[in-house]
Amino acid sequence: MLRRAAAKRQKGFFSSFHCQRPLSGRRHSPLVDSISTSIRPFPDYSPKKPAIRDADLVRSVVAALKQRRSEPPRVVLDPFSARFRADHLVWSLPHLQSDPALVYALLHWFRSRRRPLPAEALAIAAHVAVVADDLASARRLVRDGLISHRNFVDRMIYTYKYWCSVPSVFDVLFRAIVDINRLDEARALFHHLLTYGIIVSSDACNALLARLTLDQMLSTFAEFQELGLGWDTKSYNIIIYGLCSAGKAEEAHRILFEMESNAGASPDVISYSTLIEGYCRDGMLLKAMELFEGMRDRGLTPNAFTYNSIVTLLSKNGKVVEAERMFVEMMQCGVAPDHVVYTSLINGYCKNGNLTAVYRLVEGMKNSRLVPDVVTYTALIYGLSRTGKMVEANRIFREMVSKGLSPDEVTYTALIDGYCKEGKMSDAFHLHNEMLQLGFFPNVVTYTALADGLCKKGEVEAANELLHETSAKGLELNAFTYNAFINGLCKVGNIEQAVKTMEDMEAAGLPPDVYTYTTLMDAYSKSGEMDQARNLLREMLDKGIQPTIVTFNVLIHGFCASGMLEDGRKLLEWMVEKNIMPNSTTYNSLMKQYCIEKNMKKVTEIYREMCSSGVMPDENTYNILITGHSKARNMKEAYYFHSEMVSKGFSLRVSSYNAYIKVLIKKKRLTEAKRLFEEMRTRGLAADREIYNIFIDINYTEQNVEMTLELCDEAIEKCYPEPESNMT
């Protein structure tokens, strides 16, 4: 028999949660009137004695059962049915104590006569089953007793000393009370059994922990621990899971530290994996990775669940290369990836447009005998639609359907969005109608895509009607819907209607966000109305909306395009003052405009400022610098930036090729010019007429007739449009 621990355990994290509180709203009869702290003996079993006639009947029944055990109990016992009562059942059980099968047979027969089994008989039978190590039967009998009799717990305690004396029977009793969701009674039983020196096992108590709310879980853990229960690793894992599910991964981490200092409950793979998943769910990648390394330092091998969590978060954060590196490590460690891992990676690569990697993963998935599911196919369709590959997206969609997989609203919306982005509104609405015919209800995202597509086609009135129709269907328009509509209106130059829509958005209780303001600023900037764009920035700041770097880049580009370079320069200085870090796009706008104005001194000044601020030049930066210096005939500078550009893996664009080739020719560096011209042709880029004419003349002078004719044909095809037909 387990005895109450003499010394209290260290309370640790749980000390603040030690309190008594009801675990459910249901009320049952109290198991005891009071709880004593002293240990008392179990009661002696003393059933009433049978009369001589009753004793004879019991002997006859028991003898018949033992002698004719091969026959059906009904055949053996039915002759005694008229005289056999509940008392006879209880009196018969001591004679069958060593034969559980006959005990079960007798109870089953008695119940088949439509007679309720007495609580005492069920309790005795449960004890007999535990002694025989038949825990499945014991659990079934205890459950029946609890459901049928209010005094069943008392009967279990009353019959324990004579019939069982195996403490694990109370684990069975405790688990059964938890399983029928009488959680208050379970905790009361724990206290009551302490008065007899019995501590319910941590395994049984874990079933109670797993059913409680987080606050109740923590208080019960602390309370039972103080009363002498030694919680195990599974117990701590339940607490860690509960805290992580509530978004309290930091608190769950403190539990892990407590486990590491507790010899009785060391953290295992599940402990770490649950906490890693908690950090990943909260988007705390660094914490998750630190824990992942700590797990391996302790000699624990990550499982599929551990890897899944990290791969999924890396993919979600756009770090797909790192995610695949973890994926490869996973397979090298012999952990087989499942649908979730493959789909996470596929989704990540779809979002950054790397369809080569997507197809490779799909092939790997099939080689692993994992059949793509609806989520996988939807990720593929989304990625293809997003990159404008609608023929391929439609093929994947039809393949999905042919394999018996049913597309859902998300799948249809991905396709519809792709068609809308391409301006293929008839295809988009065809799919919308197909959705309705199949019983799917388009959601607000579907209608947002359709409205955005209509706006981009200039069909603003149709988009407006669609949004009103959406509202009439009970779908609440969200900020994305309004922003898409505003963006569409701005794209077709209808700024007045876009501003009115922003006012409608605010009236609907949806405050315009940074995207709304930036979209309108961009429209005003492109139309040269910089005062209006500047006013919107002030309005944003007055409302406490923090502009993004995109907002500032839109304004600086607008100032530059309008010839207001000083204003653009001042805005950049203000950004730096306010610790708003400019990016390459910010500096590129200013450099480009100064190049147009042939002020290369200013361009060089901004470039140096950019580098000293720690902002790395991008491909656009180098193209602006090479074009500007080439047009200014600064051969050395153009050559320097071109060499640096190539070393970083960047490429020239058409205008840069043209400008650079021309300056090379003017500086009589024909070999380099010719090499760049051939490189340009190899990439399928068309030089301008002047360059074609120069190289046609060079080849003609060198009597290279074949190349001269080839360049003439190419120049006519790429530089000279066909004249319109005047046929009537």
TrEMBL record:
<feature type="repeat" description="PPR">
    <location>
        <begin position="373"/>
        <end position="407"/>
    </location>
</feature>
<feature type="repeat" description="PPR">
    <location>
        <begin position="618"/>
        <end position="652"/>
    </location>
</feature>
<feature type="repeat" description="PPR">
    <location>
        <begin position="513"/>
        <end position="547"/>
    </location>
</feature>
<feature type="repeat" description="PPR">
    <location>
        <begin position="303"/>
        <end position="337"/>
    </location>
</feature>
<feature type="repeat" description="PPR">
    <location>
        <begin position="268"/>
        <end position="302"/>
    </location>
</feature>
<feature type="repeat" description="PPR">
    <location>
        <begin position="408"/>
        <end position="442"/>
    </location>
</feature>
<dbReference type="GO" id="GO:0003729">
    <property type="term" value="F:mRNA binding"/>
</dbReference>
<protein>
    <submittedName>
        <fullName>Pentatricopeptide repeat-containing protein</fullName>
    </submittedName>
</protein>
<feature type="repeat" description="PPR">
    <location>
        <begin position="443"/>
        <end position="477"/>
    </location>
</feature>
<dbReference type="Pfam" id="PF12854">
    <property type="entry name" value="PPR_1"/>
</dbReference>
<keyword id="KW-0677">Repeat</keyword>
<feature type="repeat" description="PPR">
    <location>
        <begin position="583"/>
        <end position="617"/>
    </location>
</feature>
<feature type="repeat" description="PPR">
    <location>
        <begin position="232"/>
        <end position="267"/>
    </location>
</feature>
<feature type="repeat" description="PPR">
    <location>
        <begin position="338"/>
        <end position="372"/>
    </location>
</feature>
<dbReference type="InterPro" id="IPR002885">
    <property type="entry name" value="PPR_rpt"/>
</dbReference>
<feature type="repeat" description="PPR">
    <location>
        <begin position="653"/>
        <end position="687"/>
    </location>
</feature>
<dbReference type="Pfam" id="PF13041">
    <property type="entry name" value="PPR_2"/>
</dbReference>
<feature type="repeat" description="PPR">
    <location>
        <begin position="478"/>
        <end position="512"/>
    </location>
</feature>
<dbReference type="InterPro" id="IPR011990">
    <property type="entry name" value="TPR-like_helical_dom_sf"/>
</dbReference>
<feature type="repeat" description="PPR">
    <location>
        <begin position="548"/>
        <end position="582"/>
    </location>
</feature>
